[in-house]
Every structure is written in structure tokens, then in C-alpha cells.
Amino acid sequence: MHNNAHVHDSGAGSDLLILAAFALVIVIYIGAAVYSGRRYKKWPISRILFWVLGVMCTGSAIAGPLADRAHIDFTAHMIGHILLGMLAPIFLVLAAPTTLALRTLDIQSARRLSKLLKSWPVRFVSNPIIASILNIGGLWILYTTDLYRAMQHTIIVHALVHFHVFFAGYLFTASMIYIDPMPHPFSYKFRMIVFALSLAGHDILSKYIYAHPPSGVMRTQAESGGMFMYYAGDAVDLVLIFLLCYQWFKAIRPRESLAI
After folding, report:
1. In a domain, 65, yes or no
2. Does a structural domain hold residue 86?
3. Count of domains forming the chain
4. pTM greater than the 0.90 cutoff
5. Distance (Å, whole) CA 58 – CA 63
């Protein structure tokens, strides 16, 4: 894997630009929260904190020391995978960006966004089954084909893979726990069944990686990376399970409680 470092080296000068873009995303969100708080009920500080944490997890997986190390260390790559595709999506979904956008935009723009959320393409990809296939299926393709080696040698493939891991992870999380408005909701039982199958698919893949290293990865690194994917992935999934069960409990037994 030592020959794979050139992908990152070729884009090392862009790290500051990438981090600046993420900082701008945080500023925009905070600005929207302040603006929205003046027109409606004050936006929760906890959601702002979730957004900052989510953006930081995303940024650390794409630029900086961890991203640099990920090109020569499969375990570091797997840490980035957990941050980008699992932990960051949970934080960002809890930040309720769509709700904030609907509160901040003017009436016409908000109606357009609402119409988009109700469109058939969004309804299709927000189906828990489709979201799970995009999320877990994409990882199986990445680690059981030559795609992993290709992403280490081609900057465009590298960027596309990172985008897919993040987008699929966010879509999967949003399809499991409903924080933002969901025009086409699915039952808790259905979501729980799909989640259990997805969790099994993720765990099986981590064991497969342990026994069958991805293309270009040394066995020792594949073993440590597979173990990290298994245990860290399950730890993050426990958080998602807790949130889903908590929402389910509230729906069955409505009572006054603090919003997530």
C-alpha cells in the first residue's frame, strides 16, 4: 500500500481549502439557526452541537492527518470509514438540517423544497431497503472488488467513493430515524427488520475482510481493519438502535419529554 500515497500527495495542497469549506458549512448552519430563532422558536443548541460534530467527523475523514494516514494504513482507512459513513451521518441527521432549511427559507423556496421531498426519486431512495442496499451493498463492492485499489490510484474515483460512503450513510441513517420531516414514513417494525439485516451484512463484511484482504492490502492490516470495522461499527450501530427504539417507545406511549 505504500505506492498508494501519491493520491493524497497530489491533493495535499487542497486540504486547507477543504477544511475552510467545512468551516463555512458550520458558519452557514449557525447563521441559519440564529436567523430562524428570531422568527420562530429558538433553535436548540444541541442541534448546533450535533452539526458541528458531524461536520468535524466528515472533515477529519477527508482531509488532515487521518486522511493522509489512510492511504498507507488500512486501519486508518477504516477509522475514516466509520467517521464518514456511520458516525457523521448520525450527528448530521440529529441536527435536522432539512427542518432548519424549511424554517429559514422564504415561503416559495420552502414549498419547492417540500415538493422535492415528496417527489418519487426521493421517496425511492429514502425507502429503508434501497438505502440499505446503497449503504451496505456499496461497501461490499468497495472491499470485494478492485475498486479499493482503484480509489487509491485515481483521485476522481477516490472522491466518488468518499461521496458515496457519506451520502449512502446519511441516507441510511435518515431512513431509520425520523428527525426531519418524512413525507413517506415506514413503520418502526419494518425499519427495525431492515436495520437488523443491514447490521448483519456489515458484520459479515467485516469478517470477510479479516479473512480475505481487499486488493492491495496486507493481511495484518486487513485483520486489524476488519476487527475495527466489526467492533466500532457495532458500537455506532448501538447508538442508532437506541435512537430508533427511543422513538418507537415515544410513539407507542406518548408523554411529555425532551426532544432528541
Report:
1. yes
2. yes
3. 1
4. no
5. 9
